[in-house]
UniProtKB/TrEMBL annotation:
Region feature (Disordered): 33-55
Name of the protein in its database record: Secreted protein
Composition skew (Basic and acidic residues), residue ranges: 36-55
C-alpha cells in the first residue's frame, strides 16, 4: 500500500471520529429542556463578578 493511501485512510478515520464527537455533544445539548437551559444560564450569570464601572 502506498503512503498516500494510508494518509487518505487516516484522514477518513479522523473525519469520522470528529463527526462522532460532534453528534455526541449535539445529543447531549439537545437533551436539556428549555427550563434547564434557562436555569443553567442564570446560574452562570450569578457566578460572574459584578461590574465595577472602572473602564
Amino acid at each position: 500500500m502506498r503512503w498516500w493511501k494510508v494518509l487518505g485512510l487516516a484522514g477518513a478515520a479522523g473525519v469520522a471520529a470528529t463527526g462522532v464527537v460532534i453528534v455526541r455533544s449535539e445529543r447531549k445539548r439537545r437533551a436539556y429542556t428549555p427550563d434547564q437551559v434557562r436555569d443553567r444560564l442564570h446560574a452562570r450569570l450569578d457566578e460572574q463578578p459584578a461590574p465595577t464601572g472602572d473602564r
